[in-house]
Each structure stands twice: as structure tokens, then as C-alpha cells.
Here is the input.
Amino acid sequence: MDYIRVTKDNLDGEHICCAISNNKDVQVASKKAWLADRFDEGLVFLKSVERGKCFIEYIPAEYAWIPVRADGYMVIDCLWVSGSLKGHGYSNDLLEACVSDSREKGKRGLCILSSAKKKPFLADPKYLAHKGFSVCDEADNGIQLWHLPFSDQAEKPSFRDCAKHPRVEEAGYVLYYTHQCPFNAKYVPILEKTAEERGIPFRAIRLNSREEAQNAPTPVTTCALFYNGEYLTNEQMNETKFLKLVSR
Here is the structure.
């Protein structure tokens, strides 16, 4: 398998794997706009030449859009291989490329979000353990921070205090999200419309900057849904899934 590194120079012409290819689609446009502003901060987006979900996205921890303390680490935003591309060792290829690149850049190690049991849109904990990662911190909602240090002297990363105890002081449904995930540009407006039409108390809060994301009340900032202050899920939802959740 050959891989392509997406940069500012080729961003417009490249498929970004996790959304449809048409640049006019709101999902693609939002994600590419988010990426374009991150490349100068050291973000790397490496993907397969094949069309499909096969890519890794990572960035120096000081520029990551999650509330962690991980001085000298690289944060993996997403490692995703699925569909017909799954089961061929491509995840290993992408992770090994990330490790090699991070070592060359003098990083202390890697960290990534996961959980004790596999959750949607988070790394598989069984795979992480197999590759040598271990849990270095855990929030009250079960979201874990895993790390792969490059030396025994590397300090363990941790969640910021704001994310250790996920909770908001607001009644109804409150959704925190960013445009790091392209699906939000499509589905958040759908949820807002659905909630309005059915009289469901709902507020969507878009995190527009790294500073806002690093101080968010949740470890997962791409999508975090609360109800009456309590954390519910990090799963992006369409109308059907949202109404099913509300009915419970």
C-alpha cells in the first residue's frame, strides 16, 4: 500500500477519507478548512492512495484540540481503517509511520483517547495494548488517555482538571463539538432542527479555537453530549439515533 501525506499544497485535490470527496459538500469543506489552519502547527494527515477510510491524523500535544497535559508528546487525533481496507496491516503501517516521524522530531512519545471498552470513533483499546500503549489517565465518564512513551524517563500525560470530571451546569441536552470531525457540519444542524421541532431543550456549542477545546469540560471535544449536566456519549448521531436516545 502506498500512502499520501496531505498538505496545504495538495489539500484541495485530495480525498480526506472520512467524508465524501466533493469539496462543495459542507462536511468536506468544514474539515478541510480546519485542517488548513493546523498544518503550520505541525499536524500530519497521512492516508492511503486507495479511496476509503484509511488514515492517521496527529499533532504536537501543545496544539491538540483536547484538554491534556502532554509536554513533548504527539497526540493522535484519529487512526481509522475500515471497510475493505481493514485486516491488511494498514493500521500498523500508519502507526509505525507516526512513531518514526515523532521520534525524528524528538518527541517523548504518543498519546491517544480510548476507553476500557471500545467506543464509537475512539481507538480500539485491544489494538492499543497490543502495540504497547498503556492507560495513563482516566476521566469519570470512562474516557481514557493512553500513551506510548519512547523512554522510561518520559513523564506520563494526563487530562486537564476541566476534563477529569465531565459535567455542565445546564439543563437539557448540551452538545460540545468541533469541525475536526467533518460529520458535525452535517448532523449538528439536523439535531438542532429536530430538537426545535419537538420542543426538546437542546444547545450546541461549537469549540472554535484550540484554547476553547483545551479547556472544555470533556476529554472528547469532537462530539460530547450532556443531559441535565451529565455526560452521555461521544457518538455523532442522526435524527433517528437522537430521538431514540431522547425516548430512553
